[in-house]
Design goal:
The structure holds two protein chains of two kinds. Chain A is of the alpha+beta class. Chain A contains 14 helices and 15 strands. In chain B, a hairpin with a 3-residue loop joins strand 10 and strand 11. The chains are: A alpha+beta, B alpha+beta. Chains A and B meet through helix 4, helix 5, helix 13 and strand 14 of A and helix 7, helix 9 and helix 11 of B.
Chain lengths: 491, 432
């Protein structure tokens, strides 16, 4: 890692909420409280001193932590000035379920339509999200103390519980492997330069507002005249030192409650495989793109996150439409080719036919997400899913991701790569796990999954049922800690 | 081969008729902005040579930005634009349009200034044609009929091919032969059609050849002059690039919602944008020359499925309007708007900058191709700000993207190929 640019200030870790840096993996217990403001003054008073943990490393780690994020409705309910609210990102203001056009683009169709959601629309729109994490055995006490504190100001819409599945998502696969490495040391130069290799190191500004992103630019966020911040509570903007930066050290948080039909998943595969459990498992692994233990189907490098699809352009080992290939195509800004200026020029002008064939998806680095989801509900093994035993309640994932630009990061990935039925030159199929299976605009089905093979036409798994149904969701702003105090104390 | 051609008719809307016209345009749609192929006014679906069509009310957006240069913006009445991409000469389509949908067109154009319903519609449309300054066609000579026939072929073959692993390399040949026979039988039974391409009109070859030679020739003649003038030109460019004002305010939520409401109704979307060219002769000439070059590139180089690195544009058109005061850009592209814009930024920002940096307010460029559209958020606000809603949009092959069209063409070619090696036969089967 290159030494940090001495002229550039570092990161104010004590102002960043901890979840942006840590996954709180040791804090195996978690729950998410969805709150609505019932008394503005009391709500502000509590937020002004709420015990939020920062991104500074503590040893030993805190026994329990609290993180806070707000919706646009929440900012309104807290009495934040309308012009400040209006300076946040358009996607955040519009909301995940704000209009049918966004709903269509995100693929929240059929049973996943927001009109059927448990939370995230209408009167069920939370104002504030509290994320509580605790070491084993400590969550109950922690939750009670937080609830007691915020009771005067808030009413509770829901408490979303989480289960500890030991790093395995409900379908049975090891999860959370593909994570961008955030450049906390700010070692990457601030510049706009074409990257010829896929890399996992991501500019801080892709996660945190107020820092340069992959284009070497600062993402829009509310900047204030210092007169509106008389106590100088907020940090100054790096790119406009005359302004106070309400966004700095904050991020947008996307949360979606995804109900997973674990039983339906394994039963479908078992049926298609005519009872051959090993084959069913093999197909499940093809859908995900990893073995159940997390090993990628592509021969990896140092670890399960160190590979690209460069050696498998035809999807013969990892299918072109596998979930991990859609969620992170791992390619560079230019398609691969021989070194040299001439080759690069030809590829830039699109004149290289082989490069063009690999160029349907490009520039992954602008579409990375930091994921912090937690599972919920009872865990089922494949055998249990195939059996007839009773299951208590729904299983699923509280999908949480963090990004500085909701549109270019979360919405792009969801729309173009996950929901997209023509991703990477495929046809008639969405994401094998997350796809909505609703017919396309021409009535063509989208409920297929194709497995490329070296020795024949693609194998088609047809009639995939819906495995994942969205139960709720919202876009939140997770402010820096100083910005949180500012929002809570200034009217 | 039947090369495509374009037709663009633009006429000023008569005073006080705009809202009536908009209401009438809405009656042509099944979903917001999406034309009913059988609508009563202009049944697009009945024109077998029609790829794409649209009707747009061109608004006077952003002309006020000219004041930044101290120029008085001209007062431009809103126009109605009717745009078509078709197979074969546009004159033939124009006659067909008048013959089949004459009444509907009369109803539409009766909202325009100076239109006489009793007059000659064909003549009126000819007089209101506006030539494209540059025109891009994804695959020159791919007809609507070919697209539809090849799509039906792909469906039939994909449903028919046995999806089992082959037992030996030679097996691919056997399976392919069976499929070839199957298609032959289907064609004879009239269930599939594979029409041969029509002969290319000699006139097209000749004019294409003349164009191919003439433009470089003129360039060659102008070259010495350009070399001599280059220090001045570069100075003039840099001076302007450093001072030209940027105008990239965020579009209003209402305008944005209106645009988005028309999008993602098919896997392909439309884009219409308009804005003033920076005043002064330097920019006017620069944009004119660059459009000639782009048109040349599109006509002679980028005719086989890609425009530089972008492989998702079906048709695109740049039009200088009102004597070069403003530029109109129209395209049909696959995927959502956000993906289209990210493609632009990440793959061809340099190409966008070449042309559009001559538009008032464009994000600041360096040396004509650097920065500009790479300034992601400025660019995204700028392009949304200059986009205008497309009231009626028609696509002849819903659900099909360019990736589909390219694959289906390869399937057809492979089918008609006389001999194949085992490996080629396997690769062909894997397309299905």
């Amino acid at each position: 890692m290159r030494p940090r640019n001495p002229e550039r200030p570092g990161v104010e870790l004590d102002d960043v909420q901890g979840i942006l840096r840590f996954g709180y993996k040791h804090h195996k217990e978690a729950c998410f409280l969805l709150l609505r403001v019932k008394d503005g003054d009391a709500a502000r008073a509590w937020l002004a001193q709420a015990p939020v943990s920062s991104a500074v490393k503590a040893d030993p780690p805190p026994r329990a932590t609290l993180q806070i994020a707000l919706t646009a409705e929440g900012l309104k309910a807290l009495g934040v000035a309308p012009d400040l609210i209006g300076a946040f990102a358009e996607e955040f203001l519009g909301g995940m379920a704000g209009d049918e056009d966004r709903i269509r683009r995100l693929g929240d169709l059929g049973p996943s339509h927001p009109s059927a959601w448990d939370w995230g629309q209408g009167e069920h729109m939370p104002h504030v999200l509290l994320l509580l994490y605790a070491l084993p055995g400590l969550l109950g006490e922690w939750r009670r103390s937080i609830e007691d504190g915020c009771e005067p100001g808030f009413e509770q819409l829901a408490c979303l519980g989480a289960s500890d599945m030991d790093g395995i998502e409900p379908f049975g696969f090891v999860d959370g492997i593909s994570e961008p490495e955030i450049d906390w040391g700010r070692s990457r130069p601030v510049e706009d330069r074409e990257r010829l290799e896929y890399g996992n190191l991501t500019c801080l500004g892709e996660l945190l507002l107020g820092y340069p992103n992959e284009y070497g630019l600062y993402t829009d966020r509310p900047l204030l005249d210092p007169g509106r911040d008389p106590g100088a509570m907020l940090p100054r903007a790096e790119d406009e030192p005359g302004k106070s930066d309400l966004g700095r050290n904050g991020s947008y948080l996307v949360m979606r409650q995804l109900g997973q039909d674990v039983r339906g998943f394994w039963r479908y595969l078992q049926r298609e495989a005519a009872g051959d459990t090993a084959l069913a498992r093999q197909w499940a692994e093809a859908m995900v793109g990893r073995r159940m233990d997390g090993t990628p189907l592509i021969d990896g490098g140092r670890d399960a996150n160190d590979f690209t699809y460069g050696s498998d352009p035809k999807g013969l080992r990892c299918p072109l439409g596998a979930h991990i290939r859609r969620a992170n195509p791992r390619n560079a800004d230019l398609p691969p080719g021989s070194p040299g200026l001439l080759s690069r020029l030809k590829r830039t002008l699109g004149l290289d036919a082989r490069a063009r064939a690999l160029d349907l998806v490009a520039s992954t680095r602008f579409h990375r997400l930091v994921r912090r989801g937690r599972e919920y509900g009872p865990q089922l093994t494949m055998e249990q899913a195939l059996g007839d035993g009773p299951v208590a309640g729904e299983t699923g994932l509280h999908f949480i991701c963090l990004a500085a630009n909701i549109g270019r990061q979360f919405e792009f990935v969801q729309n173009a790569w996950i929901v997209g039925t023509k991703f990477n030159g495929l046809r008639g199929e969405g994401d094998p796990l997350l796809g909505h299976r609703e017919p396309g605009p021409d009535g063509e089905p989208t409920d297929r999954f194709s497995i490329q093979r070296p020795d024949g036409p693609d194998l088609h798994l047809c009639g995939l049922p819906r495995f994942v149904t969205v139960r709720g969701g919202a876009y939140f702003f997770m402010p820096g800690i100083r910005a949180l105090r500012y929002l809570a104390t200034t009217r | 081969m039947t090369p495509q051609s374009e037709l663009l008719v633009i006429a000023p809307i008569a005073d006080g008729r705009e809202s009536d016209l908009r209401a009438l345009l809405d009656t042509m749609n099944t979903a917001p902005g999406l034309a009913d192929p059988e609508n009563a006014l202009l049944p697009f679906g009945r024109f077998e040579r029609l790829h794409f069509a649209r009707l747009v009310v061109l608004e006077d957006t952003h002309m006020a930005d000219l004041r930044l240069y101290g120029a008085q913006p001209p007062r431009l009445a809103p126009r109605l634009a009717f745009l078509v991409d078709c197979d074969g000469p546009s004159e033939a389509l124009l006659s067909d349009l008048c013959a089949i949908a004459g009444d509907g067109l009369c109803r539409l154009f009766s909202h325009c200034e100076g239109f006489d319903p009793a007059g000659d519609l064909l003549d009126w449309m000819r007089r209101h044609r506006v030539p494209a300054s540059a025109n891009y066609v994804n695959w020159v000579g791919r007809t609507v009929r070919q697209v539809r026939e090849e799509s039906a072929l792909q469906r039939a073959l994909s449903a028919r091919v046995p999806r089992t692993a082959l037992t030996s390399p030679g097996d691919a040949q056997r399976v392919r032969r069976e499929l070839v026979d199957y298609v032959g039988a289907e064609v004879r039974a009239g269930r599939l059609a594979l029409s041969s391409p029509e002969a290319t009109l000699v006139g097209w070859w000749v004019s294409n050849l003349i164009h191919a030679v003439l433009v470089p020739l003129l360039g060659l003649i102008a070259l010495p002059l350009l070399i001599v003038a280059s220090p001045v030109l570069v100075y003039q460019l840099r001076r302007r690039e450093l001072t030209d004002p940027e105008v990239c305010p965020p579009p209003s939520p209402k305008a944005l919602a209106e645009l988005r409401h028309l999008e993602d109704r098919d896997l392909t979307n439309q884009f219409t944008a308009i804005g003033p060219v920076k005043p002064g002769l330097f920019r006017r000439w620069l944009v004119t020359v660059l459009l000639v070059l782009i048109d040349y590139g599109c006509r002679h180089f980028f005719t086989r499925g890609y425009l530089a690195r972008v492989q998702t544009i079906h048709f695109a058109r740049w039009v200088l309007l009102d004597g070069g005061v403003r530029v109109l850009f129209l395209s049909n592209y696959d995927g959502s708007h956000e993906a289209y814009m990210d493609d632009f930024i990440n793959k061809v920002a340099w190409g966008l900058n070449l042309i559009f940096s001559n538009g008032v307010g464009w994000p600041r460029t360096d040396w004509l191709i650097k920065r500009g559209a790479r300034r992601e958020l400025c660019f995204k606000k700028y392009q949304r700000g200059h986009q205008i809603p497309t009231q009626v949009w028609y696509k002849a092959y819903p659900g099909l993207t360019l990736v589909d069209l390219a694959r289906n063409r390869r399937i057809r070619e492979g089918l008609e190929q006389a001999e194949m090696t085992d490996a080629q036969a396997l690769a062909w089967l894997r397309l299905l």
